[in-house]
Amino acid sequence: MSQRTSLLGRFADLAIGIDEPQRLGERTLEVVMALVDGRSSGLFEVAADQRLTLFASRGIDQHVLDAVQTLWRRAKDQLRRGQPIYVPDTGTDGDLTPATAGGPASLAMFPVFDGDELVGVVYIDSAESHFCEASDVERLAQLSRMLAPTMRPEPALPAVREPLGWEAYLERTPVQDIERQKLVLLLKRNEWNIARVARLMGMTRRTIYLRLQRYKIPRERVAKTRLRSAAAS
Fold it and tell me: Can you tell me whether residue 119 is helix, strand or coil?
């Protein structure tokens, strides 16, 4: 159990570096389930009418949805005070479906706050009773506090349009288009002398002809007078 607690702490530090809200929520559920041998988990958003709506989940079923609604109705004030809910043995709770009837053996719910506002809850359960120790509950509560950006992401800033400079042009232009333009430019500068362009580009003449076909570059017929003047220069 001490190793599990240590892993929870390490993940709490790593989670800060995840900057994609949806990925943060899903990744948190996956990792927490693995670390506490979870049966299922879910992230629920508190809607404006105070109902819970499912935001992200891993392996939940109808028993989970029923348990979440039951605990929300009877303990929402506790969650609003920032206190987690932990049921170590559902068999002793008459309002929940016990493991013998297909429900979880134990479960926990943690509040998610945005400032002072309760914006969501994290649900985790297990097929084993007493799946959490006091230290695990505290670590899981710490993770739940990091999920506020998932439930209420900051609005994206308006894109700033920058002038299309040379670097931006290179980034946005496909490599094939750049290669085609370079080949056409060299061919025109060298009076369509294939052998000379091949030497300049460090290629064979056959490669140049293949690229002419690939890029659908029509072959220009250069007058002999132009060829003589180019050779004389």
Answer: strand
Please count the structural domains in the chain. 2
In a 3-state reduction of DSSP, which class is residue 153? coil
What are 176's two structure tokens?
């094939």
Query: Distance of CA 149 to CAs 23, 114, 175, 177, 199, Å?
Result: 11, 8, 38, 41, 57
| Mean pLDDT of all residues in 166-189 | 68
Go through the chain and tell me how many residues it has. 233
- Determine the Cα–Cα distance for residues 65 and 54; give it in Å rounded to an integer: 9
User: Is residue 92, in this structure, part of any structural domain at all?
Assistant: yes
Q: Determine the Cα–Cα distance for residues 165 and 146; give it in Å rounded to an integer.
A: 40
Give the model confidence (pLDDT) of 7-31 as tens digits: 445 444 444 444 565 666 777 777 7
* pLDDT range class, residue 173, cuts 50, 70, 90: low
